[in-house]
Amino acid sequence: KFQCQVGATEIVGPIRSKYAVVKVFASPQPPIITAGPMLILREKKMALVQCISKGGRPASVIKWRRNGELISEGIEEKVENMDGTKRMITVSSLTFEAYRNISGSVLECEAINDSDEESRKVSTKVEIEFEPQVSLTADRESVYEGDTVKISCTAEAFPSLVEYQWNVGGEEVKEARGAMELIIDADRTLNGKKVTCFARNKIGQRS
Question: What is the β-pairing status of strands 15-16 and 171-172?
Fold first, then answer.
């Protein structure tokens, strides 16, 4: 702090001003998200992502948003002095469970500092990996002996690279391996047999 003083004379004492306090501000570095531009998570697993703001004086305040909506839960913030300086580092950790409905969403970290007129932002896109969800459709509702039936297998999955396998009556139809459709000629030997489509990606297999 500083003070201004006017010199004294033999008959008048010194005149002193009130103390003035000087505050030194320093802009932080742009914030970073440790996951990078894309955060790939396994469905139903707990996720941890961190946002770091370095070099601010005073320390930055960090806020998280998902698709523009403020997040208020699962956040822990740690503020420390950077080694040998009066500048600060803020580390904000966000923990959440990975559900498929947040796949494709954008997580945004906003660092707010008194030394900057505008806040600084960085974001990452969230992708959720999950095993295939399988559905079967046939090109006809009623099947009679001698009919040709086309059965289609569709799978929603991420990663979307899916391998297909068909079983009829518990036995694999090898010539249909890898195909999304199975064409069968209905005869009485197929009566009561179950047709199953297996879809598999690197996460798992479903039917």
Answer: unpaired
Output the DSSP codes for 139-196.
S-SS--TT-EEEEEEEEEEES---EEEEEETTEE-GGGTT-SEEEEE--GGGTTPPEE
User: Region 1-7: what's the mean pLDDT?
Assistant: 65
* Alpha-carbon span 199 to 152, nearest angstrom: 12
Q: Name the CA dihedral angle for 122, 99, 196, 170, rounded to a multiple of 10 degrees.
A: 110
Average pLDDT, the chain: 89
Which residue type is seen at 131?
E
**Does residue 37 have a cis bond before it (omega within 30 degrees)?**
no
CA distances from residue 177 to 142, 161, 190 in whole angstroms, order as listed: 25, 15, 19
Q: Which residues pair with 110 in a beta bridge?
A: 63, 121
Six token digits for residue 127: 């992708």
Residue 147 contacts residue 61 (beta carbons within 8 Å): no
Instruction: Please give the average per-residue pLDDT across 134-145, as a whole number.
Output: 88
Predicted confidence (pLDDT) per residue in 24-45, tens digit: 677 888 999 999 999 999 999 9
**This prediction's pTM:** 0.74
Q: What pLDDT is stored for residue 7 in this prediction? A: 66
Q: Which residues of 141-170 are buried (b: 16+ CB within 10 A; e: fewer)?
A: eeeeeeeebebebebebbeeebebbbbbee
Q: Which residue has the tokens 């990606």?
A: 201
